[in-house]
Structure prediction request, 500 residues.
Amino acid sequence: MNHDVIVVGSGFAGAVMAARLAEQGARVLILERGVWRGPAGNEDPRRAHPRRAFPRGAIGMLRDVRSIRFARSGRSRELMLNAEGLFEIHRFGGLNTLTVSGVGGGSLVYVLLVRPEDEFFDAYPDEITGAEMSRHFERVRSVLRPQPLPQLPEKEVVFERVAAEGGLGDVHYADLGVVFGESPDRPEKVRNAVGVEQETCTYLGECPFGCPRRAKTTMDLTYIPLALRHGAELRVFAEVTRLEPRNGQYRVVYNDREAGRERHAEAPRVVLAAGALNTLRLLFLARDRQRTLPDVSPALGRGFSANGDAFAFVWRTPKLSRSDYGPAGGYLVRRDPEGRHRYVLLGALGVGLGGARIPRALRRRLAASTIINTIGRDDAGAELELHGEGLGLRKGRGLGRALFDEMHGDLRRVGEQYGAARTFVGERSVMTAHPMGGAAIADTPAGGVVDHRGEVFGYPGLYVADGAAYPAPPGLPPSLTIAALAERQAELLASEIGGT
Prediction:
């Protein structure tokens, strides 16, 4: 089959790009290295897609790690644990990341949908403004239909009380990518915006591990079915290893892990949406190792950010007894002296236990514990480079020491306010679930890797559409913004395809 566009990845960016381009008549191929997850449904009745179960709770998560990548002293290596696993860990030394592999990408483990304030887009080229982005945000919301928490679980009530008693500020609530019904005790079947059946939330509290009830509105339940319905082709367990221009097209080489062989596909346009780290690795390999894209900007790898992620584990607070019940959506906002957004502090992320068989006493202690975290605007001072076949950290382990010191202090204060037996704050290294940047949107190749349309400078038809293209961290959960930018990019690309 001849393809107009090959999309690498199926998360918030890849799924949106594939769906919108297919809607406009483009012949789209989606390559996803992971597998389908969750209970089967009717996302595309013409095709049968076998699915793998989500891990249940924190213990199940440990068993579902796909691989661990280590980078130290100029060398990197990958330890493959489970090719079908959901989670991937990168250990750079002082900076660690946790990312996801599967149809739907990061949407499988997200919850919050928060729009950044308009001034965030000051870091972007002039063509991209908060006002211009408004309709793209609304388009994403019209598909995902986020909702506020209709009933606050105990952990949110306690977080509000902790914030009030400690004078920490007002708790705001984000809209959640979750379908709620009349009561969590009475689940209902509903159809989402694209006609796929979901079940309403039963407050399992396992959102960070993937919802086993299909209550979370993910890309594999929305934009991916929309893409397939309009003729897109999806190949799973297909891990891209090489990009090369050839005769006016791009050849994309990938490992078909199901068949156990190497394959390739060609198209005049390729969209990299494999998640920031994997998109960066493909570009680095093509520029520095395979030499197929030698003119990719020297800015590649610069401006990498952890999005200010910092975590604390609040162990045994007398104020909690059911921390694993219900989704979490409450957060506090911190601003700088000029009133600009600095970071958010999110409370009430309970310790999901799933069906794990653990001693009753330990279960009680974990149910009385919680995780609090920050997401902030670090200085994006990290820089990645290629170490062998993988990525390594060249510099920037601090990512803004003053900001992290402030966030760590806030985490300790909140833990004290909970009256916890102990609060463990991860200060020795940065752990992020939101790696971003490194292939920034910019006006020129000197400042970044792609233009405002996401096209790689010097390589017409090659695009970056995921978090790698962020020129600055939002200091908020990035899911909604990644999807909205992909809506914008898909609109521009569809008009170009239609005009050729």
Summary: The two ends are 19 Å apart (CA to CA). The mean pLDDT is 92.
